[in-house]
């Protein structure tokens, strides 16, 4: 523990940052005002300019004033100009080298191999609690020699801390450990290590001087000892060294800080170093408390309550009696932490597993104290879990000891993987609860009814152990919560952006001091650890099942496994699964879920920690990631680089703004939900406790095979529906329990991004992005008076939720007026009245508005009624809106409400009507499927397909969507639904293409760009190949010289033979390749496919790099305690999946656009003082602020598309992929890619001589007399580079002989039945063979010549689609753009 003086010093220094100008310091919004006057020198720094930062010259300059009040409405146009200027800036791209292909022995800039990752993780585990520092030392020294670039300063600091700790513990080896640490430090200072010392490094070494020098507590040999003078000199000469003020405030100095500062002051005074003496004097003054009034601590959050006698008491607003999730220590939480919400959040996160264990223990003991026999009392989930926990804890202790003994003897369970260091990171009791809670969470997920996939289970458990360890390491030192307030300045200006950047750096520095480095675990390690834990749970977890005796009727009891391992066929693949006993699954759907929800999946009680790094933000201690990427190492590297360069400040600030929105539980809706839940009936999309559809009856005639087959399909559908109902019931149970826990709290939802930039709340069970029930249960914590416009918008919102959203606004308001009685009845008697609200499209949200509108009407003054209900502004098929704006498509714009119209357009109805006309026409021509569909085409039927078409839905996907909709109608047979869905899918997709030609052209452009990019090879690979070829040629020349020298000097025959063998091996590779060439272009193309490592990458308008993660999956077989599993290894570089890259690019690009639009709107709404939340293309605020939000939405959309997003993308591709080349073999005529490029208008300019050599490109070639050396018409043909193995001398592989070609031709002709039976048509067959041989030889010769030829990627990028006449600024006149 730190002393009080040291604690004051560290927190004061880290929070103040007085050495930074005011924009760089943390805003004091949550702290009391400084007592010093404004003219005081310390405060005067606020007027200084911000630190230098590289900004484009076109950045608008804002005033340095920093008013926290929302900008007046008159400033809207000015703010819009600032946003527009920001979006028009020159983009700052994040560009990294392409990964190396699999098998390449070079140092990959992106991927770290799994073996190295495992070494880092084992080293981390061995350092934890100094479990095995000797082993960590061996691994560290090995990595320094083999892969030093992976080692960061944090790793070195962990090593130094471990060495010094071992110096304290081991008296015999003290000198060895301490001198080893000092040696590493000196190497860092001398620049002989890949990293430089930082604040923690210097602090650790200063602490070691105090501890181990001759005057210290544990002196070591003076020879080579570290001195204070040496450390001070290192700090002075290090240009990148942190300030001495920060170093002496570091927690590593602990209670010795005062003594160390005195010694440093003495040395500095002797050296006449006045600056250092003054700095240390100020630090001592702060530590003594002389300046603490200048750096106040965080204020506590309290609520006041009056009792019956009028006495006022203060307590934390936390209904702990009802918080059933992870808060067992009621007395402790109330009395010890009653005045500190940060402490409450800390307690919630860090003690989750202990509280879960104590709670179930307490409940079981209470039941036992009542004298109830365990066989006869009701076995709730907590009782099961208590028994499992006790047994599993003991089992794990024994298992870990056994594994440790085996590994000590050199017996490893799989591929020499060490498990003991990992299993020793977390105590056995906590490992037990982690395993139990994770398995309970996974039950019924992943498409497995009443169970889970084995691979997912073991990896999830292993990852949960990793997260728990990292959460505890995350805050090794108790440093005050950083500032979470929004920035004062407009972030779209140079000054505002600078402030944002410097605030983040200061906060990151503050948070980084408190967090310890931990290594990432590999998937293999997670699987191994999870396999051990899951097997142990399955051994000990039992449940008691009862059934009546058939003869006596008395209950019989049977102990059965709670979990068991088996196999299932899922989509034709045999998968290992963990099945859960029905006694457990039934309880999950019924019992209160106390203790089965981890706080990492819960809302927060305080505003989330601001995002300052890729894994620094959101929860206080639970490690969260800024971006969700499924094992995409490349995306992780790009986001790390973008953060380090300061390219995505606005993205992180946008997430911070979304997380700062406070929420409450809507208690009125919650009461109704609870009432419905307890009835067990299906109401308002809440699934029933007992599935309410009858089981299909078997056919009467067992010999009727068709009927039997139909019954099997019906039973399969029934079982799936039954399992789905159970899963839905469990999901609702989670939501109700969380809502109950936080019913009297103000809560916050930390947000992060998916890889396309879309924002999502991190809590998964209850959040505003969830279903209708989740949204109905939530309301803003802050209320605002409705006003005239807000009262009108609340009525429009009710009509929208009910489904009456295609009329104009006046008609919607009138529609509500006509139903006021029904609305009031719904509010007063939601379950006993007419229940009008249940007929709404979104019943629970509708009920919430009924409560709010009724309260306003009955308040006596509706316009001044304080409303906290979110009101939505939803886009009209937002993807098509973005396509129409990008392409200037006037027709499409009118259909999705971009253009001004009197009444809202409905694209779904429009497409449905077009399809209906086609069906009527076909039905008149006698088409039976069309006749069956006449009169059945509705808006609802086609809505999902139209909506997802813009996001790349395929024909198969569209058919499945339409088939489901047809089945739900219930008036068509199974067989008719299948045929009709295919027929409908074709016509729906065709109608959409006709209606939105502009969108289709853009989709084709994006798809084609992705195809050529994913087939390209980076210039780095060409340079490497050139060097490789030169090295091999040199090697061959040496072999030849050695052979000649051996003969001339009569050297031993063995040496000559070796030289000859080496030469033959090198020369023989070309011959070997000649044999392979009989496969033609396929063999060579296969070689090039291994080089296809280029992902499609682009940058959003806010600077966020988007990396498509689609690569071919590389799976590794891992033997676990349960079964052999195949796990994808993200650390293995594999070539891109070109098909997936192409098909996914259009929807992903549009998603990145709507994400950017939302983030821009969020930042602008925050600047205007609005409460803001969003669900992708649905924006929420208070009813009274809807008009202002509508203006913001339109302005940001116009500004975004005024910057011409397609041209920006095209320009980025030209810059990002400059020098990338495509093998000409991929572009041959008659290939799909060639045809599509020709259709798009792509032309590669060549001279007549070049055109002859590249003739197989067909119509892609444009012959010109001369190709310019520079400019867009420059020579786009890449330099010939030997890429195919075996062509050492640069020549292409040899051509096969005529005889070999003839054999191949005969086989091909035989397949085409051109060669008749023996004796028939011999002459014709011979002629056919001869002709085919000539054709084959000519084509193979042409292919052979193209084998090592390449075309510049930028030469074959398709031209931009022609833009239409629609002016995006007309959106300002559209009432129904978002409504």
From TrEMBL:
Keyword Nucleotidyltransferase: yes
Reactions catalysed: RNA(n) + a ribonucleoside 5'-triphosphate = RNA(n+1) + diphosphate
Keywords (A to Z) from UniProt: DNA-directed RNA polymerase, Nucleotidyltransferase, Transcription, Transferase, Transit peptide
Coiled-coil intervals, chain numbering: none
Entry-linked InterPro entries: DNA-dir_RNA_pol_helix_hairp_sf, DNA-dir_Rpol_C_phage-type, DNA-dir_Rpol_phage-type, DNA/RNA_pol_sf, RNA_POL_N_sf, RPOL_N, TPR-like_helical_dom_sf
Region (Disordered): 1-80, 1036-1055
All residue ranges annotated as the DNA-directed RNA polymerase N-terminal domain in the record: 343-660
UniProt cross-references to Pfam families, sorted A to Z: RNA_pol, RPOL_N
GO biological process: mitochondrial transcription
Compositional bias annotation for Basic residues: 1038-1047
Gene Ontology molecular-function annotations: DNA-directed RNA polymerase activity; mitochondrial promoter sequence-specific DNA binding
Its EC number(s): 2.7.7.6
One cellular component term from this protein's GO annotations in UniProt: mitochondrial DNA-directed RNA polymerase complex
Biased composition (Low complexity): 11-20, 33-52, 62-77
PANTHER family recorded: DNA-DIRECTED RNA POLYMERASE, MITOCHONDRIAL
Family that this chain belongs to: Belongs to the phage and mitochondrial RNA polymerase family.
Biological role: DNA-dependent RNA polymerase catalyzes the transcription of DNA into RNA using the four ribonucleoside triphosphates as substrates.
Protein name: DNA-directed RNA polymerase
Organism of derivation: Ephemerocybe angulata
């Amino acid at each position: 523990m730190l002393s009080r003086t040291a604690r004051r010093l560290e927190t004061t220094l880290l929070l103040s940052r007085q050495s930074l100008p005011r924009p760089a310091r943390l805003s004091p919004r949550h702290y009391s005002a400084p007592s010093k006057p404004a003219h005081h020198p310390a405060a005067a720094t606020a007027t200084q300019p911000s630190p230098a930062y590289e900004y484009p010259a076109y950045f608008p300059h804002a005033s340095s004033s920093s008013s926290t009040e929302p900008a007046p409405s008159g400033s809207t146009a000015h703010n819009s100009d600032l946003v527009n200027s920001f979006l028009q800036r020159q983009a700052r791209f994040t560009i990294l080298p392409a990964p190396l292909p699999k098998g390449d022995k070079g140092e990959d800039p992106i991927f770290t191999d799994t073996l190295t990752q495992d070494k880092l993780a084992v080293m981390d585990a061995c350092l934890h609690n100094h479990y095995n520092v000797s082993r960590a030392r061996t691994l560290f020294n090995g990595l320094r020699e083999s892969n030093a670039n992976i080692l960061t300063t944090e790793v070195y600091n962990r090593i130094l801390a471990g060495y010094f700790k071992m110096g304290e513990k081991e008296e015999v080896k003290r000198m060895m450990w301490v001198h080893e640490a000092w040696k590493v430090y000196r190497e860092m200072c001398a620049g002989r290590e890949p990293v430089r010392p930082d604040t923690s490094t210097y602090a650790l070494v200063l602490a070691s001087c105090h501890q181990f020098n001759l005057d210290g507590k544990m002196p070591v040999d003076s020879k080579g000892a570290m001195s204070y003078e040496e450390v001070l000199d290192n700090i002075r000469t290090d240009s990148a060294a942190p300030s001495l003020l920060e170093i002496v405030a570091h927690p590593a100095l602990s209670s010795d800080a005062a003594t160390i500062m005195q010694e440093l002051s003495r040395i500095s005074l002797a050296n006449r170093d006045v600056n250092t003496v003054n700095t240390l004097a100020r630090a001592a003054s702060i530590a003594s408390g002389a300046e603490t009034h200048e750096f106040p601590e965080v204020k506590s959050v309290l609520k006041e309550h009056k009792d019956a006698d009028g006495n006022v008491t203060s307590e934390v607003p936390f209904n702990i009696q009802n918080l059933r999730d992870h808060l067992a220590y009621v007395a402790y939480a109330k009395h010890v932490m009653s005045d500190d919400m940060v402490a409450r959040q800390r307690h919630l996160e860090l003690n989750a597993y202990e509280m879960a264990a104590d709670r179930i223990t307490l409940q079981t003991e209470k039941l036992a104290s009542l004298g109830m026999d365990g066989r006869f009392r009701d076995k709730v989930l907590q009782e099961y879990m208590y028994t499992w926990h006790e047994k599993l804890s003991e089992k794990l202790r024994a298992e870990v000891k056994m594994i440790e003994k085996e590994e000590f003897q050199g017996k490893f369970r799989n591929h020499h993987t060490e498990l003991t260091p990992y299993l020793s990171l977390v105590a056995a009791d906590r490992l037990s609860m982690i395993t139990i809670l994770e398995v309970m969470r996974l039950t019924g997920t992943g498409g497995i009814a009443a169970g889970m996939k084995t691979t997912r289970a073991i990896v999830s458990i292993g990852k949960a152990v990793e997260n728990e360890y990292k959460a505890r390491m995350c805050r090794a030192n108790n440093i005050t919560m950083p500032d979470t307030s929004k920035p004062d300045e407009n972030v779209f200006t140079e000054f505002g952006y600078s402030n944002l950047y410097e605030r983040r750096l200061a906060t990151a520095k503050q948070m980084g001091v408190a967090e310890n480095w931990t290594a990432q675990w590999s998937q293999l390690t997670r699987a191994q650890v999870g396999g051990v834990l899951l097997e142990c749970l399955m051994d000990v977890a039992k449940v008691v099942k009862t059934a009546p005796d058939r003869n006596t009727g008395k209950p019989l009891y049977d102990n059965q496994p709670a979990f068991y391992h088996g196999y299932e066929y899922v989509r034709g693949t045999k998968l290992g699964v963990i099945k859960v006993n029905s006694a457990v699954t039934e309880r999950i759907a019924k019992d209160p879920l106390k203790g089965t929800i981890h706080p990492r999946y819960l809302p927060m009680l305080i505003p989330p920690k601001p995002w300052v790094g890729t894994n620094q933000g959101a929860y206080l201690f639970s490690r969260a990631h800024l971006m969700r990427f499924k094992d995409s190492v490349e995306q992780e590297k790009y986001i790390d680089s973008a953060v380090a360069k300061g390219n995505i400040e606005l993205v992180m600030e946008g997430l911070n703004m979304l997380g700062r929105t406070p929420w409450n539980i809507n208690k009125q809706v919650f009461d109704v939900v609870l009432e419905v839940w307890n009835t067990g009936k299906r109401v308002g999309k809440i699934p029933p406790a007992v599935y309410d559809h009858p089981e299909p009856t078997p056919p009467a005639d067992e010999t009727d095979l068709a009927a039997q087959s139909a019954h099997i399909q019906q039973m399969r559908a029934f079982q799936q529906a039954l399992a789905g109902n159970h899963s839905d019931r469990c999901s609702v149970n989670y939501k109700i329990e969380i809502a109950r826990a936080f019913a009297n709290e103000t809560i916050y939802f930390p947000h992060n991004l998916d890889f396309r930039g879309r924002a999502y709340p991190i809590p998964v069970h209850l959040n505003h992005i969830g279903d209708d029930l989740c949204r109905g249960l939530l309301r803003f914590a802050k209320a605002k008076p409705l006003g005239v416009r807000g009262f009108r918008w609340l009525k429009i919102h009710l009509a929208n939720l009910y489904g009456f959203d295609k009329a104009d606004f006046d008609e919607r308001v009138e529609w509500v007026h006509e139903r006021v009685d029904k609305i009031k009845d719904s509010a007063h008697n939601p379950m006993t009245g007419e229940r009008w609200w249940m007929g709404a499209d979104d019943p629970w949200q509708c009920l919430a508005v009924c409560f709010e509108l009724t309260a306003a009407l009955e308040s006596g003054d509706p316009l001044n009624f304080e409303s906290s209900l979110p009101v939505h502004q939803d886009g009209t098929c937002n993807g098509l809106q973005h396509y129409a704006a990008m392409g200037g498509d006037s027709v499409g714009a009118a259909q999705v409400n971009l253009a001004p119209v009197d009444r809202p357009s409905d694209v779904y109805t429009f497409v449905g009507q077009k399809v209906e006309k086609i069906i009527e026409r076909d039905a008149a021509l006698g088409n039976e499927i069309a006749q069956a569909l006449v009169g059945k085409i509705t808006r609802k039927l086609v809505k999902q397909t139209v909506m997802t078409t813009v996001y790349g839905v395929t024909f198969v996907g569209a058919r499945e969507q339409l088939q489901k909709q047809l089945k739900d109608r219930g008036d068509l047979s199974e067989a008719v639904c299948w045929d009709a869905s295919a027929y409908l899918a074709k016509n729906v997709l065709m109608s959409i293409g006709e209606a939105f030609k502009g969108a289709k052209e853009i989709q084709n452009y994006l798809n084609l760009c992705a195809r050529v990019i994913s087939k390209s090879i980076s210039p780095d690979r060409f340079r490497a190949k050139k060097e490789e070829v030169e090295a091999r040629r040199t090697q061959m020349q040496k072999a030849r010289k050695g052979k000649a020298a051996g003969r001339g000097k009569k050297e031993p025959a063995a040496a000559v033979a070796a030289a000859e063998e080496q030469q033959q091996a090198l020369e023989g590779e070309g011959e070997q390749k000649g044999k392979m060439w009989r496969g033609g272009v396929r063999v060579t193309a296969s070689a090039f496919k291994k080089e296809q490592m280029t992902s499609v990458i682009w940058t959003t308008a806010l600077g966020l790099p988007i990396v498509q993660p689609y690569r071919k999956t590389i799976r590794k077989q891992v033997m676990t305690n349960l079964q052999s599993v195949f796990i994808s290894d993200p650390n293995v570089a594999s070539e891109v999946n070109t098909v997936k890259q192409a098909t996914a690019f259009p929807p992903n690009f549009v998603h990145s656009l709507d994400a950017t639009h939302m983030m821009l709107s969020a930042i602008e709404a925050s600047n205007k003082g609005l409460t803001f939340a969003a669900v992708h293309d649905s924006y929420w605020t208070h009813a009274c602020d809807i008009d202002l939000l509508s203006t913001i939405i339109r302005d940001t959309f116009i500004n975004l598309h005024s910057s011409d997003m397609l041209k920006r993308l095209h320009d980025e591709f030209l810059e990002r992929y400059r020098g990338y080349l495509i093998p000409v073999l991929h572009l041959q005529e008659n290939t799909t890619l060639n045809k599509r490029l020709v259709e798009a208008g792509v032309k590669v300019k060549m001279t007549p001589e070049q055109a002859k050599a590249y003739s197989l490109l067909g119509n892609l070639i444009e012959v010109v007399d001369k190709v310019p050396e520079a400019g867009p018409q420059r020579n786009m043909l890449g330099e010939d580079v030997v890429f195919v193995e075996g062509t050492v001398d640069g020549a292409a592989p040899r051509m096969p002989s005529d005889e070999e070609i003839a054999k191949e031709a005969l086989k091909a002709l035989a397949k085409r039945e051109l060669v008749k039976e023996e004796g028939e048509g011999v002459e014709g067959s011979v002629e056919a063979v001869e002709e085919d041989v000539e054709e084959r030889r000519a084509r193979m010769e042409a292919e052979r010549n193209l084998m090592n030829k390449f075309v510049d990627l930028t030469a074959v990028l398709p031209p931009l689609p022609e833009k239409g006449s629609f002016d995006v600024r007309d959106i300002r006149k559209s009432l129904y753009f978002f409504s």
